[in-house]
Amino acid sequence: MFQSEPLSYRMRPTIIEQVVGQNEVIGPNTALYKMIKNGHIPSLLLYGPPGTGKTSLAFAIAGSTKKEFYAINATTAGKKDIEDIIEEARLTRNAIIFIDEIHRFNKSQQDSLLKGLEEGVFTLIGATTENPFHSVNNAIRSRCGQIKQLKPLSSSSIITLLKNALEDKSNGLGKTNITIDENNIKLIALSTGDGRTALNLLEDIVWASDRDEQNNILVTEDTVKQCIQNKGFSHDKKGDIYYDLLSGFQKSIRGSDVDAALYYLARLLEGGDLVSIARRLLVIAYEDIGLANPDLCARVLPAIESVERLGLPEGRIPLSVLTIELCLSAKSNSAYKALDKAIQEVKNGKTLEIPLHLRDAHYEGAVKLRHGIEYKYPHDYANSWVEQEYLPKELKGTKFYESKEAGEEKRLSQIHSKLESLRNKNN
Fold it and tell me: Which of 56, 95, 148, 401 is deepest in the core (most CB within 10 A)?
């Protein structure tokens, strides 16, 4: 049964018809599939999480053509390696250069591809786990006719991969008598959206399983569960998945979905990054709860300080309370939206004269400049309020704040409306 290469490597598809999943990218009805079948290979960028089949797809495309194929990894290849391959490609002008983790190339290395790519010396297939619109320079992107996002494989696609591996006698496990029921195959598939991990996990499970008297390998549920623990966990602090998890966490709280928020919190906690969780919770409190529940906003920082003092795993306890309370709280974004409107006015050049009566009068000579002379001190009037203009005259009547009838802000809204009525009455 022993083979030196991992099962995922051995089961790599050799032509595009063997690719499992990613039907939206390379299914028989897609433009990319038809291009390749008609003999045209466009330069393209493939991006998506690890194990979604980027490298496999590149090799399958190469296997479906008669082009020379060069594969390099940006973590180990240098500019000289690229130049040598391009020079070889110039001899035939019929080559595909596949660069895995192309985002790891610096600008100079990426630029070294441009001339040959522009001249049609080779076809480029780049693979990256990061969004190419952020990690690959504009010049490379503009010369790639296709940018395709590969998504985590569905459980049904992974089940297909696993069954293919169990049946394949040449590259898979088909020569070995393995007894594994459908439920255990599903358990493996559900543990990850990563095809490479699932295949290698299957091989680990087979090696961890006992044999019967007839030398048959018997895969049990207990062995599967022991091997799959945390295998489906993905948390890259520099990758899209990290920011997507934080985004999903905040949007679930904003949408008052407790279960979804707890799910994303659990995934973030598995990454052990309490700092990012704490920062995001502070943002959520003031961005999404705001004036609707200012008391809760004020409690967030002390709660986070408790979490930081406790550490993990105990820190999860106050985090769970805080997350659920934020989810179920009344919500308002009116405060920062109002400020954003004011900021936009300033950015638009409206840095206008401050009314004379509001200017600083605490220095000698201010009276001569008429600074502060006509200022009305509100505490000298009933209810500590008096009508006077505070905005520059050019902005008189401008409204930035639009109150919401949500939670505690409902009371603030009533006060705001009453003050507006008084101003309108006096005008």
Answer: 56
User: Considering only CA atoms, which of 308, 190, 327 is closest in space to residue 265?
Assistant: 327
Owner of token pair 């080559």: 95
Query: Taking the mean position of all CA atoms in its chain, how far away is CA 335?
Result: 27
Average of per-residue pLDDT values in the chain = 86
The percent helix, strand, coil of the chain (3-state, each to 5) is 55, 10, 40
Say what the pLDDT of residue 79 is: 81
377: which 2 tokens? 């001190």
* CA-derived radius of gyration, the chain: 31
User: Quick check: 1 pLDDT over 60?
Assistant: no
Q: How far apart are CA 268 and CA 248, in angstroms?
A: 11
- What share of the chain has pLDDT > 70, as a percent? 96
| Nearest CA-CA partner of 355 in 380, 331, 372 | 372
**Within its chain, how far is the Cα of 7 from the centroid?**
29
List the structure tokens of 419: 């003050």
Instruction: Tell me the three state secondary structure of residue 77.
Output: coil
- Helix extents (H) in 239-390: 240-254, 258-270, 274-284, 294-310, 316-328, 334-347
Residue 156: CB atoms within 10 A of its CB come to: 12
